[in-house]
Amino acid sequence: MKNAMEPMSFTSDRVFSDRGRLYTESACPGKRIYGERLFSIKGTEYREWDPRRSKLSAYLTVGGKQFPFSKSSRVLYLGASSGTTPSHVADICSEGKVYCVEFAQRMFRELVGTCETRPNMMPILGDATKPEEYAMFTDSVDVVYQDVAQKRQAHILCENMDAFNAKHGMVAVKARSEDVTASPESIFKDAEKVILDKGYKIIDCKQLDPYEKAHAMIVVGRE
Q1: Which CATH class is domain 6-49?
Q2: In angstroms, rounded to a whole number, what is the distance separating the alpha carbons of residues 10 and 66?
Q3: Are 59 and 218 a contacting pair, CB within 8 Å?
């Protein structure tokens, strides 16, 4: 590894790259979330961001260049699971807030443990299809990020962007959760159409192979 990490200037000065691997600056030095490798350089600790464990990292690794997160971003994260990717988002948005919504109680218990060491992460037990259930926690966010493996994924993103007045959104579309008989490409096109019909614009769309088969990341903005 180099003596200093290189920021990925085409995405964010909060994400770093070294020899094809991605890193975020750890907001909680010495603490691993999912067994990731830690490196300290000149007194700063970095966490490796594995694209096989994070669809957002996979998107950047395959060449995605639209990254709406900043140091002060307020993020609504739908489908937070145990907090693997949200913890990296919390590293990036170190002066912002990451509202982590998870429906499954077993995963939520693990998420709570992850959030205990990161004060800018808030765990919320809720259903991503019912934004009114967690509207009490925030009235607006900058970004809605969605990784919910169920039907109507594009609708859920847009409904939450509407509810929280978000300027940007990202949705990791899992084709097999929508229709196991249709081609992934047709599912991705259908998702894009839903987003456009809802009055939003498509900023980027990239398939996540080889890290996630039959997945695409769609980046959304307001017209």
Answers
A1: alpha beta
A2: 8
A3: no
